[in-house]
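Saturday, quiet lab. Running sequence design on the structure tokens for the scaffold JK sent over.
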């Protein structure tokens, strides 16, 4: 009999998982560094998708810039982090900045919801 994904996650992680879209309420970024993921020791994974025509750069520091950040290319570029591969980097606070104003983004994360 097929098993529900929620049950598989509960079995693998030992806790329920809760998804969030743009949990900090940030849906676009401009030329000023903006925090997109808060520090959260209960986060399993996140994915960041650049929905704009501008380049967006990410870093675990508010000094993020085009010369000091990881590029999420225009029109669908993305970055992701998973606890099994990226370890505690997943739980860090993340910031982003764009090469142009009002650059739309999607910040998706999955956290522990407790037992």
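Result came back. Writing it out in full:
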């Amino acid at each position: 009999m097929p098993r529900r994904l929620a049950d598989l996650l509960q079995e693998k992680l030992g806790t329920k998982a809760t998804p969030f879209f743009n949990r900090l309420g940030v849906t676009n970024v401009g030329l000023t560094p903006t925090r997109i993921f808060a520090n959260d020791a209960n986060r399993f994974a996140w994915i960041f998708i650049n929905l704009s025509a501008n380049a967006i750069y990410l870093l675990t520091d508010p000094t993020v810039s085009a010369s000091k950040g990881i590029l999420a290319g225009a029109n669908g570029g993305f970055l992701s982090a998973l606890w099994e591969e990226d370890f505690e980097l997943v739980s860090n606070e993340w910031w982003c900045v764009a090469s142009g104003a009002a650059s739309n983004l999607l910040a998706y994360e999955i956290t522990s919801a407790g037992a």
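Notes for JK: The longest strand covers residues 103-112. The chain has a mean pLDDT of 95. Ask whether to fix the surface positions before the next round.
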